[in-house]
Write a structure and sequence with these properties.
The protein is mainly α. The chain has helices spanning 2-26, 35-66, 72-96, 105-132, 150-160, 177-189, 197-211, and strands spanning 136-141, 144-149. It folds into two domains: 2-130; 136-211, Cytochrome Bc1 Complex, Chain D, domain 2 (Orthogonal Bundle). It contains seven helices and two strands; from the N terminus they run ααααββααα.
Length: 215
């Protein structure tokens, strides 16, 4: 959930940077030509680029482990995320070295935002919708209670577990939360890196909610 929120904030930052650029280049109002608008664009745009680099670095390791078995939304997320890099470099080249193409910058900026929107829509936006439309469950990990999305847990279960065995297997049992936790942990150890701790929490929450036994 935290990643989804950060992704949406990153997208909002990019949108604000594009708006500032369009105001600067397209409006005839005096205030739109002020240094404040220019600096707003630079700060927002710089924050957008820094956020992109951080996301890219954080996700490289995950995709190296899981690339052969990524579900379609995550695969599109990865490809579009990589596509952003050359477009950002193109924008920087125009600003620094090819000023005769300066009038193309608004279009490049809008393309960057559209690609960024799709990147977020395939992951952060998708998981946020799953979270908001509920229901939720509470699970225990390392002595702490965590609130998880049942819908997200179901999606993760279907995407991850089906890679190793038939999906019908988990639905043959009714277990307590601790028993489901042990099952998910045991399965995860067979393929380290396939499931993150938060994803495991969501799976346990879904299994507890749908296939829980009396404790």
């Amino acid at each position: 959930m935290a990643y989804s929120i950060l992704s949406l904030l990153w997208l909002l930052c990019g949108f604000a940077a594009v708006v500032a650029m369009l105001l600067r280049l397209g409006s005839r109002a005096a205030w739109a030509k002020s240094p404040m608008i220019l600096w707003a664009h630079r700060i927002l745009g710089g924050s957008f680029v820094i956020g992109y680099i951080i996301f890219l670095i954080c996700m490289i390791g995950l995709y190296q482990v899981n690339a052969p078995r990524l579900p379609l939304p995550l695969a599109l997320h990865a490809y579009l995320g990589v596509l952003l890099l050359p477009i950002l470099l193109l924008k920087e080249l125009i600003v620094r070295f090819f000023k005769r193409y300066f009038t193309a910058l608004p279009y490049v900026g809008m393309v960057i935002f559209c690609v960024a929107f799709l990147v977020v829509a395939f992951t952060g936006g998708h998981y946020t919708v799953l979270w908001l439309k509920g229901p939720t469950a509470k699970v225990t990990r390392d002595g702490k209670r965590h609130k998880v999305s049942v819908a997200l847990g179901r999606e993760i279960l279907h995407n991850k577990c089906a890679q190793c065995h038939e999906l019908k297997l988990p639905y043959l049992y009714h277990r307590t939360e601790d028993e489901w936790r042990n099952t998910v942990t045991r399965m995860s150890r067979k393929d380290p890196g396939l499931v993150s701790p938060k994803q495991a929490d969501a799976m346990v929450g879904y299994l507890k909610k749908e296939l829980g036994a009396a404790e």
